[in-house]
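TEACHING EXERCISE
Course module: macromolecular assemblies
Task: Read the component lines below, then compare them to the predicted structure of the full complex.
Student: A.B.
Group: 4
Components provided:
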Amino acid sequence: MCFIKMKNKINLAFGIVFATLVLMNTINASGIVSPYWKDYPLEMNFGETKIANFVLQNMVGNEDITVKAEIKQGADIASLEKDIYTAKAGTSDTIIPVKITIPKDYGKSLQEIQLEVKTIEAEQGGMITLGTGWTTSFNVIISEKPISKNFLIGLIIALISITIILVLIILIILLKRRAK
Amino acid sequence: MKDKKKGLYITMFFIFTIFLISIVSAGFWNKVTGKAQQQPQDISINVVGANPVVIEYIETLLPQNPTENSITTIVFEVRITDPDGVSDIDDSSVSAEFSKIGETTKNDNCQWQSDIDSDTASYSCSIDMQYYDSAGTWNIKISAKDYGSKILVEDTSKNFVYQELKAMTLSPESLTWPNVIPGSTNQASDNDPAIITNTGNYNGEISVTAYDLIGETVPGESIPSEEFSIGISTGTNEECNAPATATSIGENGATTSIANSDSNPGPGPANYEELYYCIPSFPLVTSQRYSTSVGGSWYVLY
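Instructor-supplied answer key:
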């Protein structure tokens, strides 16, 4: 009986040690949600500004994570307000806003934007410390702003009005000439 | 003439008799005997209409975020109209379905919430999306029918975007090597593989950003990152045999895609990839400890 109890205690101790080792070896998991990606481009017009909100998640681990964000491509139109973001454990709503501004005279109709986000890791003591990161690339398709329906209607009305006025002026001139 | 009058009397007699019977039946003269006793009786009549339902409104869904290693419940409202009145709508028939080519279709019954007016009712639909469901445009199908016509009406006009989630867990968090003799070959890490579990819906290759390992005693000496190789299998030093079964790591700070690696999105436990690390030909460097503590951590990237 006493032997069985001792065996159970040893098993429990091994279990605790194993679980601790597993936990020690696990990097806090995290992820990032992209509003645009390779197959889902962003469409914009010249002179337009949009904010693409990337969402940092830290749902699996039980420690806060800190990441460093960097625009690796397309920095001429995309910018970050800051580059360090922290997501508390158990959260999925840390926003990393990327501001994208297309100048009116921008020379391209397609620009790839690449955002790289990497966790900031504390030194782990091994030969190589490993961290996790995500590179999100998406295309920005740039086009001229389409002419609005109201603008078109206004333009047609203006053209008709000008034509009528011109016809009236011509008629008045012709009538005056005839009167002479 | 007489015959005509006779016929008229007979007709009038019949009309009068029928009139009298109807009055008696209506209980006009309660004194009339021989009629059955009155008894209260509950009568229930289901009035159903011939018109099919109309799917009046489906709430527009904004792009939806997957949740790391979890489900995202998408809740939205639909409104069903029946010209024959809300009582003719078969509440249990109102259902929603999300579908995308190559993906398992998801469906759920919608729950009645309230009657908006006499012929329109509001329903709440909720469908669970998994973290590994693929990113892209998903179609929404709403179905409903009524009791009267029993015609199943469907609407597939709406879509929503399920966004891309790049998420992973990585274990272990540092790699070690046994003591290595300079000039030796095929020196594999002694605590790999690094196991990368996909807790999102990213589908693609895995990359590694690597940095030179700097000497901790003599920082002027280093082991360049190009001396390393990474493979997705081991056994007979496959991780050391680049380019046949492994990938040579790029220069200091470069990001290298690991050949044949796969993020393996999907439900656990198969949603992971293993990376094995090797130094195929150990450089002739002085004896000291080399690590990433100065040059910077390596990164596993999606």
